[in-house]
Amino acid sequence: MTTAPMELLSEWIVRQAGEEGAWFASHLRSLSSGASEQDLHVFLGLIPRKLGKQDLALTSDDVRRAALAHAGWRPQGWSIDGAARVAALIGYQGPRPFADTFKDLRRTADAGELIALYRGLPLYLEPESLAFEVGEGLRSNMRAVFEAIAHDNPYARDHFDEHRWNHMVLKALFVGSRLSPVVGLDERANPELARILLDYAHERWAAGRAVSPELWRCVGPFIDSLDALDDLQRVMSGTETERKAAVLALAANQSPRARSLLAASPEVARLVSEGHVDWNNLLQSEAA
C-alpha cells in the first residue's frame, strides 16, 4: 500500500528527531487544522533550532517507498530541516492561495531555505500554480538553487512545456551541472533540444572549449535527422569518457549508419551492451 509523501516525511523526521519528534508532529497537526500564516512562519523559523540541519537518514526501503508515493521523487540528499519545511507546506491549510504563500517564503528565504522550497515542488498541492516562482528559481545565479529544481525532482518532467524543459537542460550544461540526475531526461528528449545542444557543441568547439560528454545523451536518438554522425565520429576520437559517451549515444539510434559507426569501437560497445557503462556512471568513471 502506498503511503502519502507527507506521512513518509513525518515518519522519517520523527524517527530521527528523538525527543523533538513529538514537538514536530504536534505542530504539523495544528498546521492542518486552521493555523494562521503567522503560525506557519513561526514553525518554519523554529525547525532548524529544534531539529538541526543534519542529513535526513534514509534506508533503501525509505527510498523505494518515496518512489512509490510519487514517481521520480528522490529524497536522498535532503536535510532533516528541509524535509520538515516541505512537510509543513504540504500540510498547511491557509486562507490564501498556496502560490501566494510560497511567493512570500521565497522572497525572504536564504539559500538553504530556497533549496528546500524547490525540492518540495512535486509534492505540494496545485503545483502547476507555481510556474512563475519556478521560473525565478531557474534564473537563479546560485547553482544549488537551480539544481534543486533540475536534479532529482520530477516537477520539471511533469509540468514544463518543451521550451522551458529545453532551456533548463541547456542551462544545466552552461553552468556545469550534471544531466544524469535530471528526472525524465530520456522520456522528454525531443528534436528541438537535440538541435539546440548540437549548436551549443559547435559553438564550444569553435571557441576551443570542451563539451560535456553528457550532452550526446540528448542528441543520440536524433542523429540522422540532424546529420550529426560526423560530430559523433569526432567525439569517438576524443578521451575515453567521450568515446564511451559517443557509443552510448549511437546505441540509442537504430539507423544503419549509426550501427556502422558503433562497430568501430567494439570493446566499448560490449561494455555498454553488458551494462558496465551507462549514462549514470559515465562521469563517475572519469572522476575515478
Verbal overview:
It contains 18 helices and no strands. It folds into 2 domains: 5-175, no CATH class; 191-274. The radius of gyration is 22 Å and the shape is elongated. The model has no long low-confidence stretch (mean pLDDT 93). Helix 1 packs across helix 5. The longest helix is centred in the C-terminal third of the chain and has 16 residues, at 191-206. It is mainly α and 288 residues long. Helix content is 61%, strand content 0%. It has helices spanning 5-17, 21-31, 37-51, 60-69, 80-91, 98-108, 111-119, 131-138, 143-150, 155-159, 162-174, 191-206, 223-226, 229-236, 240-251, 256-262, 266-273, 282-287.
Rg from C-alpha positions? Answer: 22 Å
Oligomer: single chain
Structural class by sheet pairing and helices: mainly alpha
Supply the number of structural domains. Answer: 2
Overall body shape: elongated
* Helix run count: 18
Would you identify the regions where 5 or more consecutive residues have pLDDT less than 50?
A: none
| Order of helix and strand elements from N to C terminus | HHHHHHHHHHHHHHHHHH
The percentage helix is 55-70%
- Major sheet attributes: none
What is the distance, rounded to the nearest whole angstrom, between the alpha carbons of the first and last residues?
Answer: 40 Å
Approximately how much beta-strand content do the residues carry? under 5%
Average pLDDT across residues? Answer: 93
Q: Count every beta strand, where a strand is a DSSP E run of 2 or more residues.
A: 0
Organism: Modicisalibacter xianhensis
InterPro entries: EboA_dom (IPR047715)
Protein name: EboA domain-containing protein
